[in-house]
Amino acid sequence: MEGRQGRISFVNGPVIRGSNMKSFKMREMVMVGPNRLIGEIISLEGDGAVIQVYEETGGLKVGQSIVPTGKPLSVKLGPGIIGNIFDGIQRPLKRIDEMSQGFISQGIGLLSIDEDRKWQVDITTGLGEWLQQGQIFGRVRETPLIDHRLMVPPGVSGKVVYVKDSGTYNIEEVLVKLETETGEIIELKMYQEWPVRVPRPVKSRKAIKQPLVTGQRILDLFFPIAKGGTAAIPGGFGTGKTMTQHQLAKWSDAD
What pTM was estimated for this model as a whole? Predict the structure, then answer.
């Protein structure tokens, strides 16, 4: 990756332009400048690219390096998400506060979920079994109320050729190995790394049948919302978005 570095040619706040980037890919995650700020390629044209940087860009200079990672901007989905608070690129704010004393320093990196914490894992598969995408191969009691199911990632299937016993492990330890029909070995851990721009696949979706009574007649009449659905409140500064959210939180028919 180091052999195909790009160079900064323009900086305007969080948006930068780079040159010498023909071999880079659209939506690829890149590391920008000497502090390796996290960015994402949002446009490619000829030898150049436009990059959205998700950190403070103060101090960046024209000519500094842009290093590719070879993968899209992704997050880790696994035990440790519940009970934590993250920023938009899944950096845990509690750990950042401990490291930076209340401020997010440049180049603090993608720390994600705690890789050292041990979890009690109940393995539910065995050697020789054939597992397909979505099948459960283990369980983790993430909280007293939530049983986290460890599933085979989408697009993966194979025969179990290696499996650990139930026990205490961190999220980086390999729990199961699958051999696919082509002979490839796939390692399964407690988490799945998933690109943020790719929707998670579902087997089916339940039909929405019940309205959410918001307690705000203007919304219930002209902009009805369904329970289990989604809604957005667009608007400029001072137009009442937050006040509307306050009223919804106070009066809507929801737990």
Answer: 0.76
Residue 237 tokens, joined: 């500064």
Per-residue model confidence as pLDDT tens digits over 102-158: 677 777 776 688 888 999 999 999 999 999 999 999 999 999 989 999 999 999 999
- CATH 2.40.30.20: which residues of the chain? 2-72
CATH class of 2-72: mainly beta
Nearest alpha carbon to residue 161 among 192, 195, 128, 114: 128
User: 119-195: which CATH number, 2.60.40.420, 2.40.50.100, 1.20.1070.10, 1.10.10.10?
Assistant: 2.40.50.100
Token pair of 113 as six digits: 């979920």
Q: Phi, psi at residue 47, to the nearest 5°?
A: -85, -5
Query: Within a 10 A sphere around the Cβ of 139, how many other Cβ atoms?
Result: 16
Opening angle at CA 69, ends 68 and 71, nearest 5? 120
